[in-house]
Structure prediction request, 151 residues.
Amino acid sequence: MPKHLVLLLTLILTSCVDFPNQYAPTRARRPDTGPDPRGLKAYIDMKDPAALAHIAWGINPAAFDGEKRKAEPKAALRFKVDDTSNLKVSIDIATPQLLRVKMNGRPLGETTSTHFEAPVEPSDFFANTATLVEIESDSGFSLLRAGFLKR
Prediction:
């Protein structure tokens, strides 16, 4: 068989291979493919065993002292919220520091204390999906509890 036919056959066969995307989208653009939101709660304490299902990224499940979990400078939790009217986001951390909070990509505000609260609107939620709460700090934080409460 001539060399050019072998080369042509090789090129044809390799062009049929579906290579995976080598450049994955950034975390902000990646869809939340975590657990089914029906098993999630609207509010959790980190000492609750169900808290592990709420971790989207940035919180170390092993760094737990019985009350709080150590989080990286950028962390996120997912929640299931059934009734979206008259709610506020509530977050408690162990030591005062600057926190910036987003819900489903929309900035909610920031605080320099151990407690953060901000009202949310029903339009901030997406039907039948988990609600993503992103928490950013300069150097990481210890998370006690987070979620949605009635105003």
The mean pLDDT is 84. The chain has one domain: 37-150. The first helix runs from residue 3 to 15. The beta strands are 43-45, 55-64, 69-79, 87-93, 99-103, 106-111, 115-120, 131-137, 141-150.
